[in-house]
């Protein structure tokens, strides 16, 4: 698997006899490396598309021994157009599942170190599992929509405000630059944000949140993220579409 994917407007389905159909939505699996400053890229996000984080797990460490660069992985797990699925059965999805599992295993092995895990543990929402506090400047995941015109790092312009430490990464604690860039920090707690609508077409970037330059060099571990992208022409029916994708193989 690669570290970027392109969302084609159409897809071929075994259930439709390889007929090209216009995609309504995509289900995407992502393994985000904590020490890759480029993160993962979703190409061809269109104006009005909604990018939804439906699952986010894993713990990474933001103070450990220097490690070689480890690239993340991302892949399209399924897609839907009306009642047509790209992978209509578990058997059809089996090759993707095999590749996904092998890629995640390789990602985990790449982060193994003789000295074990580092310190500054952060889950995918930026929470320290030991103290219960939320980091304002490193750790967790940031989603940068096409409006961001690239990735946002943990600079003074992008760090979360003080209230986030105890209350979680809610939008009210996002910096003005993060808000104006239509980026967000996924947070599944009350008042959190788990999706955004693209204000322009382009690429979306998803990465671990840390400082530009050498900030990523001492990071260890990865996050596993489930993503759904609903195309703009179907956002009015997104609940039904999400239900179809979530009910179809494969599952995280």
Describe this structure in words.
There is one protein chain. The protein is an alpha+beta fold and 252 residues long. It has one domain. 16% of the residues lie in helices and 32% in strands. The chain has four helices and 15 strands. Strands 4, 6, 7, 8, 9, 10, 13 and 15 form an eight-stranded antiparallel β-sheet that branches. Strand 2 and strand 3 form a beta hairpin. The protein is globular and about 50 Å long.
Question: Mean of residue pLDDT?
Answer: 94
How far apart the termini lie comes to 16 Å
The percent range for helix content is 10-25%
Shape verdict: globular
Whole-angstrom Rg:
18 Å
Per DSSP, what share of the residues sits in E-state strands of 2 or more residues? 25-35%
Biased composition (Basic and acidic residues): 114-126
Region (Disordered): 112-133
Features:
eight-stranded antiparallel β-sheet; alpha+beta; 252 residues; globular; five-stranded mixed β-sheet; 4 helices
Describe the structure concisely for a colleague.
Helices cover 16% and strands 32% of the residues. With 252 residues, the protein is of the alpha+beta class. Residues 112-133 are annotated as: Disordered.
Layout of helices and strands:
Blueprint: E1 4-6, E2 10-12, E3 20-22, E4 25-33, E5 40-45, E6 50-57, E7 59-63, E8 73-81, E9 84-85, H1 90-110, E10 119-123, E11 141-144, H2 164-167, H3 176-180, E12 183-184, E13 195-197, E14 202-208, E15 220-230, H4 238-247
Parallel strand pairs: 1-5
Antiparallel strand pairs: 2-3, 4-8, 4-15, 5-14, 6-13, 6-15, 7-10, 7-15, 8-9, 11-12, 11-14
């Amino acid at each position: 698997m690669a570290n970027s994917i392109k969302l084609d407007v159409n897809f071929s389905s075994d259930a439709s006899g390889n007929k090209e159909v216009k995609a309504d939505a995509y289900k995407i699996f992502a393994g985000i490396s904590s020490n890759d400053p480029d993160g993962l890229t979703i190409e061809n996000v269109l104006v009005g598309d909604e990018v939804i984080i439906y699952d986010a797990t894993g713990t990474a460490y933001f103070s450990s021994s220097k490690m070689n660069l480890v690239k993340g992985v991302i892949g399209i797990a399924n897609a839907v157009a009306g009642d047509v699925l790209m992978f209509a059965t578990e058997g059809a999805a089996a090759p993707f599942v095999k590749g996904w599992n092998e890629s995640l295993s390789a990602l985990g092995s790449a982060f193994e170190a003789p000295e074990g895990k580092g310190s500054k543990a952060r889950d995918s929402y930026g929470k320290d599992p030991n103290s219960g506090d939320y980091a304002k400047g490193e750790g967790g995941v940031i989603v940068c929509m096409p409006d961001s015109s690239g990735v946002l790092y943990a600079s003074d312009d992008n760090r979360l405000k003080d209230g986030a430490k105890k209350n979680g990464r809610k939008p009210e604690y996002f910096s003005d630059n993060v808000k104006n860039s239509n980026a967000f920090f996924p947070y599944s707690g009350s008042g959190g944000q788990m999706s955004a609508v693209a204000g322009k077409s382009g690429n979306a970037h998803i990465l671990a949140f840390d400082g530009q330059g050498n900030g990523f060099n001492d990071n260890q571990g990865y996050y596993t993220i489930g993503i759904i992208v609903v195309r703009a022409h179907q956002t009015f029916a997104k609940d039904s579409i999400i239900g179809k994708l979530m009910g179809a193989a494969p599952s995280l």
